[in-house]
Design goal:
Order of helices and strands of chain A: HEEEEHEHHEEEEEEEHHEHEHEHEHHHEH
Number of helices of chain B: 18
Number of strands of chain B: 16
Number of helices of chain A: 13
CATH class of the largest domain in chain A: Alpha Beta
Strand order of the largest sheet of chain B: 5-4-3-6-2-1-7-8
CATH class of the largest domain in chain B: Alpha Beta
CATH architecture of the largest domain in chain B: 2-Layer Sandwich
Radius of gyration of chain B: 31 Å
Distance between the termini of chain B: 60 Å
CATH superfamily of the largest domain in chain B: Histidine kinase-like ATPase, C-terminal domain
Helix content of chain A: 40-55%
Strand content of chain B: 15-25%
Radius of gyration of chain A: 22 Å
Strand content of chain A: 15-25%
CATH architecture of the largest domain in chain A: 3-Layer(aba) Sandwich
Oligomer: heterodimer
Helix content of chain B: 40-55%
Number of strands of chain A: 17
Strand order of the largest sheet of chain A: 10-7-13-12-14-15
Chain lengths: 372, 597
């Protein structure tokens, strides 16, 4: 793990650059032979992923979509190539562009410009999948924040100007927290924590930080703020791999918390299945809130909405991860039967610090009971 | 050119017959009173009791009405002394709405229209390509002087007063063939209206040939006895070699837009592409020129004898009385069209009448049997050479001349028959181009090449148009409305006797046979339109895809150059090849689309 980030990055850049040029040359040759050039992309959807229990993440299945240059595809084809050209320029200059910036760069492309950012994001995802690299390797970076960290951890980063190591002590942010950067490949860690507690909501994270829960439980706290970003997933993964420490996930007890937030953290997403290998945390385990918790802790609930029920049924029917685990099918079915959901903060019913004093200690006594 | 007709009463009687023939039995009140009026002089020259009841007696001499005292206020004799013939002129002065003079705007239009109709008929009869000059001068707020001049054959001097100063005098009424004018009322009525509203005489200048003198007449109609009164009569210098110029001063209103004189002239030019018109609108507006779109005259329609199916009982009785034939069978063959010896025999047999019976002595009840027999025997349809349709090419020429559209079509239906009268329907359609896309279709109605501008909703043509689902043909249409879109619909009915709903010739009666033909013609035009719209849509789509290719392929070569850094020469080659590849693929796609449907 003692990779020199700059050099490593240069090597990756050269590799990607070569791939970009090879594919461009191939297209050029096809056109010169007056044949229709084709680009093949893996299909990016949940329907085209397989769950590997041993390897622990969603892996892309074989299906590919072909984009052959025809009258109907000429616009997207042109846009995809221009996006690749932009990536090439970024890599050569060791520069980056956020998704939003890439969208604005396209405004120079006259007729080929994107009219809305989702269009350019989709093309960017296509390019990423086309080369089977992550977008950071193409020079594109996401806009969103990675996540917040507090607790028994020292992150070692590097000063961009001097190249000197920067030691960031995550116990010393007071009531604040360390922000996960967009790119985490170069980070190194020092820690003797017993586990990583990954939390869905910023509110719950605040409470645990404020009361120094990490000190009491000797752990690292990470706030995801909803569905975890790639950087956040990668950060947790590297940290957990590095020190071989368990990862426990504490989210709302509803279909969204389970099938979207937890599932994405643990095995990755359908949309970026070609990258899940890196952006997943197979060792993650589900601490709560489980359907059983709702009963055991007599939690106040809200009725499940139509979309919640649909999401749960969809996952039971189509999500390869859920389908692989009978316990999850059972849990989701139970939730649908109960017709209710409970938020993390519902524990406040028993007192504001009930979660720290009672719930988490009780749960952590039996990690083997956590859902897979 | 015009035949001297009989005396007024017989002409009026004939007029009544015509009208009865030409319309369904249930007529309006005006019609009935006219029939009563007309029948009177023929039956009892001194007049009958209900002649007075018709309410058209102009005045009663006061001393006769008041000079009596005693038990009864009136005796049969005193009433009889007041009873007298009613002039057809008087009748129409009181009922001028029947002739299209019901309001000032319409009066101006009708006057121009009657003069133009006459001019066009005269030119065509003489085989002359018509050139018309129409002038309207505004003399005061509501006072106009119209002048219509043609290059027709001119009018023999002796006939001029009768033609312009006597109602129901004309050459067309007694002959069954297609013409604009039918009854010999129009132009004299216009002159009469002018006289009535301004006191000015109708002025006519006419010349029949290069070596002949031109005559100038000022004529007034004596409404009391429907006779012409010549106010002025002189030989004049006149430039044209032959032709006629009519001038009328009248009270009227000039408006632009729909139903205007301007619109009438334009539509006339469309329906008569063989005609050239110079039109000088009032207020010193620019003189408009409608050039000839074709140099061929429409074929001359032939006069036909009446078809048995179209004759009513009264008409039949009169025809039998007046026939030159001595025997019934011969009379049928001689006076009717499509009656062969075999058909005549069959009719006689069915009527249980002798073939050799003297037609002049056939009794009323026998005539009735004969009438019923006629309708029970199968008789071939009437000859259709009395018709002179405009023709598809000419309609197209007319439309293309006056309307800027992107698609034109025209069709002429084969002749058909209603109540023994042959008729023929023609439809033209112009679509797209400069026509406004968000308005209702412009419906142009014509009867014997004359534009119909009033009473659109009462007309069989409108009814037929409304009865069709135009959405099937790619146009928008609200329920019960005309179709909407950039469309002009041109509909023409040619007939030896067009069944107008009134003497002012504004709307055509909706005989089922006529509506059926109209619908068939309109649907045919609609199918052609929808084929055009579909093809047009395909072409637009094709154009879009083509421009799509042009738009985006440069970006492919730009991107490849940015990545691979090849020289501009290579980029140009690449671009050329890309174009070939895509156009080939497009051609294949299109072939696929076409084979799919």
């Amino acid at each position: 793990m003692a990779r020199r980030p700059k050099a490593a990055r240069g090597a990756v850049n050269r590799e990607v650059l070569a791939a970009i040029q090879a594919s461009a040359r191939q297209i050029q040759e096809k056109i010169m032979a007056r044949k229709k050039p084709t680009m093949k992309f893996p299909v990016r959807s949940l329907a085209n992923v397989r769950y590997h229990p041993q390897r622990g993440f969603f892996e892309i299945a074989g299906r590919k979509k072909e984009r052959t240059l025809t009258v109907n595809t000429v616009k997207t084809f042109a846009q995809t190539l221009r996006m690749i050209a932009l990536s090439k320029e970024l890599l050569e200059n060791d520069d980056i562009a956020t998704k939003r910036e890439a969208y604005y760069v396209s405004k120079n492309w006259d007729e080929a410009r994107f009219s809305e950012q989702p269009e350019s994001d989709t093309v960017m995802d296509d390019v990423e999948a086309y080369f089977s690299v992550n977008r950071e390797q193409l020079g594109f970076v996401p806009e969103e924040k990675g996540g917040d960290v507090a607790g028994r951890l020292i992150v070692i980063d590097h000063d961009r100007d001097t190249g000197k190591a920067l030691r960031i002590d995550c116990t010393r942010f007071g009531s604040g927290a360390y922000s996960v950067p967009i790119s985490v490949e170069h980070l190194e860690f020092e820690t003797n924590a017993d586990f990583i507690l990954v939390i869905e909501t910023a509110g719950m994270f605040q409470r645990l930080v404020k009361h120094h829960y990490w000190k009491k439980a000797n752990c690292i706290l990470v706030s995801m703020g909803g569905v975890p970003t790639r950087a956040c997933r990668r950060f947790i993964r590297r940290l957990a791999d590095f020190k071989r420490i368990p990862v426990y996930v504490f989210v709302d007890g509803d279909p969204y918390g389970i099938t979207n937030i937890y599932r994405t953290l643990k095995v990755g997403s359908g949309n970026a299945a070609h990258l899940n290998e890196f952006f997943c945390v197979p060792q993650a385990r589900f601490l709560g809130i489980t359907p059983q918790d709702i009963v055991d802790y007599k939690l106040p609930t809200h009725p499940l909405k139509e979309v919640d029920i649909k999401r749960a049924r969809d996952a039971i029917r189509n999500d390869p991860f859920i389908r692989h685990h009978g316990e999850w099918i059972h849990a989701l079915e139970r939730l649908v039967d109960m017709g209710v959901r409970a938020e993390q903060q519902a524990l406040a019913k028993h007192g504001l610090n009930y979660v720290i004093e009672t719930y988490l200690p009780q749960k952590l006594r039996h990690p083997e009971r956590f859902l897979p | 050119m015009k035949n001297p007709a009989g005396r007024i009463p017989s002409a009026a009687a004939a007029s009544a017959r015509k009208r009865r023939r030409a319309r369904p039995p249930a007529g309006g009140p005006y019609q009935l009173s006219l029939v009563d009026l007309a029948a009177k002089p023929a039956a009892a020259p001194s007049g009958g009791a209900d002649g007075a009841a018709a309410g058209s007696v102009p005045q009663a001499p006061p001393e006769q009405a008041a000079g009596r005292s005693g038990g009864r206020r009136e005796t049969a004799e005193s009433i009889a002394a007041r009873q007298r013939e009613i002039s057809v002129s008087e009748f129409f002065i009181k009922n001028r709405h029947l002739l299209g003079f019901d309001n000032p705007q319409k009066a101006l239009l009708t006057a121009v229209k009657e003069a133009v109709d006459n001019s066009l008929d005269a030119c065509e009869e003489a085989g002359i390509l018509p050139t018309l000059k129409v002038e309207i001068r505004q003399l005061a707020e509501d006072r106009f002087r119209i002048a219509v001049e043609d290059n027709g054959p001119g009018i023999v001097k002796a006939q001029i007063p009768k033609i312009f100063g006597k109602l129901l005098y004309g050459s067309k009424f007694h002959i069954l063939k297609q013409a604009r004018g039918q009854q010999g009322i129009g132009i004299s009525a216009a002159g009469m209206y002018g006289l009535l509203t301004t006191g000015k005489s109708l002025a006519v200048t006419s010349r029949t040939g290069p070596g002949k003198p031109a005559h100038y007449y000022e004529i007034q109609i004596n409404t009391r006895n429907n006779t012409p009164q010549v106010i002025k009569d002189s030989a004049v210098e006149w430039e044209p070699e032959h032709g006629t110029r009519v001038e009328i001063e009248l009270l009227g209103t000039y408006k632009k837009g729909r139903r205007s004189v301007d619109d009438y002239i334009r539509q006339t030019a469309i329906a008569n592409p063989h005609c050239e018109i110079w039109y000088a609108p009032p207020n010193g507006g620019e003189v408009l020129h409608y050039p000839r779109a074709t140099d061929s005259l429409p074929p001359e329609p032939r006069a036909i004898k009446p078809h048995p199916y179209g004759v009513e009982l009264g008409m039949l009785i009169r025809m039998l009385k007046e026939t030159r034939a001595r025997q019934l069978k011969a009379a049928l063959q001689l006076d009717f069209s499509r009656v062969s010896p075999r058909v005549a025999e069959e009719i006689c047999r069915a009527a249980q009448l002798s073939e050799n019976a003297n037609p002049h002595t056939i009794a009323a009840h026998e005539a009735e049997r004969l009438y019923r027999a006629i309708n029970s025997v199968k008789i071939m349809g009437p000859p259709t050479n009395c018709l002179s349709p405009i023709g598809e090419r000419q309609i197209l020429a007319g439309l293309q001349k006056e309307i800027r559209a992107s698609f034109y079509t025209a069709l002429t239906r084969p002749p058909a028959v209603y109540r023994g009268n042959p008729f023929q329907v023609e439809v033209g359609l112009a679509y797209g181009g400069d026509l406004p896309g968000d308005e209702l279709a412009d419906l142009l109605r014509f009867a014997n090449r004359v534009p119909l501008q009033y009473q659109q909703s009462a007309c069989a043509i409108t009814k037929a148009v409304l009865s069709i689902d135009w959405r099937k043909y790619g146009l928008a249409q609200s329920k019960g409305a005309l179709p909407a879109g950039p469309v002009v619909l041109f509909v023409h009915i040619a007939s030896a006797w067009v069944p107008f709903t009134s003497e002012s010739k504004e709307a055509i009666a909706a005989y089922p046979e006529i509506v059926r033909e109209l619908r068939l013609a309109l649907q045919d035009a609609g199918r052609r339109l929808s084929a055009h719209i579909r093809a047009h849509r395909r072409a637009a789509e094709e154009q879009k895809k083509r421009s799509y290719i042009e738009k985006y392929i440069p970006h492919i070569s730009i991107a490849l150059r940015e990545i691979l850094g090849f020289p501009a020469q290579t980029e140009a080659e690449l671009l050329a090849n890309l174009k070939i590849v895509l156009e080939r693929s497009r051609a294949r796609e299109r072939a696929q689309e076409e084979s799919d449907g």
